[in-house]
Each structure stands twice: as structure tokens, then as C-alpha cells.
Amino acid sequence: MPIEILMPALSPTMEEGNLSKWLKNEGDKVVAGDVIAEIETDKATMEVEAVDEGTLGKILIAAGTEGVKVNTPIAVLLQDGESAGDIGKSSAPAKA
Known about the structure:
Strand order of the largest sheet: 3-6-8-1-9
Order of helices and strands: EEEEEEEEE
Largest sheet: 5 strands, mixed
CATH superfamily: RNA polymerase II/Efflux pump adaptor protein, barrel-sandwich hybrid domain
Number of domains: 1
CATH class: Mainly Beta
Radius of gyration: 13 Å
CATH architecture: Beta Barrel
Strand content: over 45%
Shape: elongated
Helix content: under 10%
């Protein structure tokens, strides 16, 4: 089942942030610990790491997007044997 990668919180009070850039592209293979994107607030910049291995199936939030709410899906990770057609069936969010 495809795994949603969610916008993480940099602090307990963070409500939204900016997705500054993607370091991986759709179709790239990733393993747990790979840095896939950078997010920022007015106070900090943080790397978003993959928590599972698979293929970055779809980027949902474009680089440069501001005001992305915490826990909003930003991308979908596909596991072995899955295709982009499986993305609509995702129900297993992963914390980024």
C-alpha cells in the first residue's frame, strides 16, 4: 500500500511551514534515512528524511510552496510491486 509522507513539525507549536526544495525526484529509489526534501519556517530549516524504503511515486506539494500545514501529505512513497495507479488507494500515512 502506498505510504503518504506528511509535512513534519519542527516544533510542538509549529502549524505550517514552507517546502523549500525537493532533493529527490519522482521515480527515485529511496531508503530509510535518505534526505528527500527541505522544509523551513521563519526560525529554522530542516531536512525531511524517508522513514521507509521504496520509490518516490508522486510529489504532492511543489518546491517553493509556502504555508503547508503540518500533517498535510507532501508526497507518496511506493513499495515494491506498486505503481502510480495505486496512489489513490493510500491509507497508511508515514511521519516524515
